[in-house]
Amino acid sequence: MENEQFEQRKEKLDELRSLGVNPFANNFKPEHVARELISGYGEMSEEELSSLEDVFSLAGRVVAVRDFGKSLFMHISDRTGRIQGYIKKDVIGEDELKFFKKFVDLGDILGIKGTLFKTRTGELTVNVSEFSLLTKSLHPLPEKWHGLKDVELRYRQRYLDLISNPEVKEIFLTRSRVVKLIREFMDQRDYVEVETPILNQIAGGAAAKPFETFHNALSMDLYLRIAPELFLKRLVVGGIERVYEIGRTFRNEGISTQHNPEFTIMELYEAYATYEDLMELIEELLCYLATEIKGSLNFEYGDLNIDMTRPWKRINILNSLRETIGEEVLSDEKKLFEKADSMGLEHHGMWGKAVTEIFEILIGDHLMDPTFVYGFPLDVSPLARTSEQDPKITDRFELYIAGREMANAFSELNDPIDQKERFQKQLELKERGDEEAHQMDEDYVTALEHGMPPAAGAGIGIDRLIMLLTNSLSIREVIFFPHLRPE
């Protein structure tokens, strides 16, 4: 059926050209948008509208047509919403009405001009005195255009999803607004926004498997960045004491409702701050966003009610595990590894890795209201400052909301000797088969040797944050073009 409609529309396209009509014209300048007219004139009476002499011009996609013989109603959709148009033979002329009926299909893009009136049902409508065919669509809109439901098709052809489902468009408009609000928040606190390289000689700054590529001119391997961390901290060394970046990062890992191989992160670094300072900053930021976007610190997320009222709960990872699996298992490496093995978790013979993996399954996945989890083991925190109270742990936290990690932060390790030793231990892990272990970054160590002020840094997953604020249960709902297997 669609192929048949495609051929019919193609014939119309050819006929339009034979008549000297450009089916892809670019000579119409809309001066108004649907929302502007509806908000500005929607409450006026018919009498008030009839006294207006203004002629309004809009452009948009034809999404509905109802033919009444000598007249027709249609709806066009622009970037702000939908508005109805009325085409009548007595106003527009018989030839123009015939042209519309013959050549204009659902999905075409029109420019229209006319005055405003209200129908008997009270709907604000443009009384069209002139229209221009601006783009001929060769494919019909999805059946029941107002509700494209095929999830796979929605992700593969996001443009149809946006046309068909206004609520999807609203998610992405909200995403843009959230990023704008984050920038305003950071700028007000004297942070400098920067851009750092995406193509890296060394994949550093996070524990993840990188994507590899090759630079022909330099004849060298490069990696898509897994985090901007080490470059941003070089800037702290250089005197940019409050710095942040919002950008894409890439990790060669699985795809799920929470993971996409490329995703957006914000990383921030502040000199003379501790990880506890960043708890306060992140609390303030996320509460600000919730208030601006949701209008409240209490809102629904799926089947959950999220309460973001400050102060947020703080729990120690080791104490919480001690209560769950017992001190005997936690303090005995053999028993801890056996516990991790029984749960099907990878730990590479690392006590800290087993601790964090077990914690995530037994506790982290069940933390619904905002909760800071602190006290992470040293061997899974190679860039974090060692706790002065316990040399086996670091001054690091992760933020959980709705059972998901939303942020990771720590007081930064700025001792170059210690940092180099930790990189060396990461190399040993890599040799033992841990593909996510850090590489040695000699230049970063050299930067630390020049002196980095005491500092704290954090990474916040923007996509997961948008999921929370738009009540989206899959990361694919908040990324325009998520990765999918080939058809």
Name the CATH superfamily classification of the largest domain: Bira Bifunctional Protein, Domain 2
Q: Roughly how many Å apart are the termini?
A: 21 Å
Low-confidence stretches: none
Quickly count the helices.
Answer: 17
What sort of overall outline do the alpha carbons produce when their principal axes are compared? Answer: elongated
Classified by CATH, the class of the largest domain is Alpha Beta
Radius of gyration: 29 Å
Strand order of the largest sheet: 6-10-11-18-17-16-15-14
**What count of structural domains?**
2
Largest sheet entry: 8 strands, mixed
Total beta-strand segments: 18
Helix-and-strand structural type: alpha+beta
Percentage of residues assigned to helices:
25-40%
Average pLDDT metric: 94
Query: Architecture of the largest domain, according to CATH?
Result: 2-Layer Sandwich
